[in-house]
Amino acid sequence: MDLTVRAAELDAADPLARLRAEFDLPPGTVYLDGNSLGAPPRRVADQMGRVVREQWGGRLIRSWSEGWWEAPQRVGERIAPLIGAVPGQVVVADSTSVNIFKALVAAVRLAPGRREILVDAATFPTDGYIASSVAELTGTVLRAVDVDELPTALGERTAVALLNHVDYRTGRLHDMAAVTELVHAAGARVVWDLCHSVGVLPIALDALGVDLAVGCTYKFLNGGPGAPAFLYVRRDLQETFDQPLSGWGGHREPFAMAPDYVPAEGVERARCGTPDILSLLALESALEVWDGVALADVRAKGLSLTGFFIECVDELLPPGTVEVLTPRDERRGHQVSLRHEAAEAVMTELIKREVIGDFRAPNVLRFGFAPLYVTYADALHAARVLADIVTTA
Amino acid sequence: MDLTVRAAELDAADPLARLRAEFDLPPGTVYLDGNSLGAPPRRVADQMGRVVREQWGGRLIRSWSEGWWEAPQRVGERIAPLIGAVPGQVVVADSTSVNIFKALVAAVRLAPGRREILVDAATFPTDGYIASSVAELTGTVLRAVDVDELPTALGERTAVALLNHVDYRTGRLHDMAAVTELVHAAGARVVWDLCHSVGVLPIALDALGVDLAVGCTYKFLNGGPGAPAFLYVRRDLQETFDQPLSGWGGHREPFAMAPDYVPAEGVERARCGTPDILSLLALESALEVWDGVALADVRAKGLSLTGFFIECVDELLPPGTVEVLTPRDERRGHQVSLRHEAAEAVMTELIKREVIGDFRAPNVLRFGFAPLYVTYADALHAARVLADIVTTA
């Protein structure tokens, strides 16, 4: 069947199609970089105006006791169902990097005697940078391993393994259930980085017994540029979760201004400083678009969209022009990575023509497909423009 | 002279009076808590709408290369003149607590062999909590000392002293020049916490040779609730500034996605994760109100306002009703702290009558006087309402 007709039929049958109208996107732009920065839900701009005028300006300091102080937990509870967590296990605070630091130090402290930290060799760099710092501070050794080599790498020395659920470069999705089981079988803790999987597919942290997880909120959750990240601490680990960024925000009685630090009883102890309210409330507003959205539908559309894009690439680009790095089976997130020798120039030209993906050195074209606002027609259009560029270049 | 007349004359002669119109404050409210949460400059609400619609929605991912990525340094340069720093020494990122962590660990690493951290015994609690964690992680010892006892406490063991420029509880201003000299004479480093002094008086970090400084931006700088904090690293210390939150934001080539962490050459190495753009740009907009404002004028008005308020308290309250904890000479910031046995109930009643200060346990009434938007008439009104409450209670 003709690809144009296919795209139209798929869009017409899309149960998530209504959500596109929730987002503010420039007309004529095909936006395939929601895996790097999600598009703004329309409601956010007005909400920010209200927060500044009514909460900050109108109520001033009183707003701290009218919902601001609890925002890290309240927004965490909005994320909890997206990662399979019952209430009381998620806070939103600080950046992903900072939360990785908290989680890794706490994990090392949970395992005295175990002196090795394993990190996914293909990890997004910041995870490895932070892990290296944690190793230096805690007197442990950092080892980078391929996820497929975990079975032999894990052992009695392993304190914790820090892993990316979806590889940021290739889009490969790891098997969280199997890997978590492997790590636990070695008596170690696992920290999952969900940056590229939250908002992509159903995640079952509680059901899989995951120990700790972090993730950003500005990709598929559309929380805004650099929006605060989340940290999940499994309920039964909270009492012994001893994180080093012991700011007053994590204190049991923050307003008692006590001289000694006593961590809060629950996941609030994962907080650190004064919460960044403007960004937190922008994120809270952005998360409202998920109300009533079934992650199973999101996942189905994401696989279908990325599959359709790969099919268009196969059909429209001359054979051998690009190499599809992303798994063609279901072991992928919602991005498609293509290898092309002149990837950087190709992406520059794509963006010039309003097809926005991104480039990852040295030769990767990345296209993210956010099921809430990307259509099959977008995917086809992107493949056509790409085909035009790589054949005429 | 009659206090009402005095207040009117002082307001009429106030060179900063025009700035009040820059702020969005509810009519009828006397806001004396700008030392906890500054009032919103009017321009911020509209600017936030523009940032969300035009930069995030309109330019999407492209905005990262159109001013977002450099925002931590750019906003830092707006703060630099307020703290006496030439360009290239300030970044805005993360919270005060997180920046204290970076600064203290880096300071300890600058002084191998020196195993003691000194912290102001009257410090805002989060500083002490973080210092305690740093001591644990770095194998150093934390010692709380009164600032007046520093001459005997400092010694060959001291790696670093962490001090508050203005005491958050009493409002006492410490002598930065003399104390910095003392700490340096002992061969140690000083980290100044400027939360309660930035935007209050001229600060001369460069001229005094201060090593490191942190400060928040949501008090007298009016950056918004939980706005990101700043960190100053003196130019000649930057090359050896080795901070433990080595996220990709501080990498020399963040977009090269290199496997190993190599810190940026300048103060950018004090960054960590992805910068929180919405909050950073709200702060940037808020800082515009300082354009053309002389800190000497701000300081003169702040001393005069707080002095006038103390005079009103002396005159209007029956003797012995409250005790003025804040120094009556110039060794104070722009807050006045009063001790009253029923401080919490008194503050509740004040706020009910739209005179907004705050309460600090166990018995302190705090009133902050932000010279950009507080008037002498406000100060007099607050003292009259306070007198009415404490005499009729």
UniProtKB/TrEMBL annotation, chains A, B:
For this UniProt record, the keywords arranged alphabetically read as follows: Hydrolase, Pyridine nucleotide biosynthesis, Pyridoxal phosphate
A Pfam family annotated for this UniProt entry:
KYNU_C
The record's listing under InterPro entries reads: Kynureninase, PyrdxlP-dep_Trfase, PyrdxlP-dep_Trfase_major, PyrdxlP-dep_Trfase_small
- Keyword Transcription regulation set for record: no
The reaction(s) catalysed by this protein are: 3-hydroxy-L-kynurenine + H2O = 3-hydroxyanthranilate + L-alanine + H(+); L-kynurenine + H2O = anthranilate + L-alanine + H(+)
EC numbers listed for it are 3.7.1.3
Which cofactor(s) does the record list? Answer: pyridoxal 5'-phosphate
Q: Which residues carry this modification: N6-(pyridoxal phosphate)lysine?
A: 219
Give the matching SUPFAM superfamilies: PLP-dependent transferases
User: Which superkingdom heads the taxonomic lineage of this protein's source?
Assistant: Bacteria
**Class in the EC hierarchy, top level:** hydrolase
Annotated pathway: Cofactor biosynthesis; NAD(+) biosynthesis; quinolinate from L-kynurenine: step 2/3; Amino-acid degradation; L-kynurenine degradation; L-alanine and anthranilate from L-kynurenine: step 1/1
Q: Where does pyridoxal 5'-phosphate bind?
A: 96-97, 124-127, 193, 196, 218, 248, 274
UniProt cross-references to NCBIfam families, sorted A to Z: kynureninase
Purpose of the protein: Catalyzes the cleavage of L-kynurenine (L-Kyn) and L-3-hydroxykynurenine (L-3OHKyn) into anthranilic acid (AA) and 3-hydroxyanthranilic acid (3-OHAA), respectively.
Q: How does it assemble?
A: Homodimer.
The UniProt family comment states: Belongs to the kynureninase family.
Protein name as annotated: Kynureninase
Query: What is the protein's species of origin?
Result: Actinoallomurus vinaceus
Lineage in the entry?
Bacteria, Bacillati, Actinomycetota, Actinomycetes, Streptosporangiales
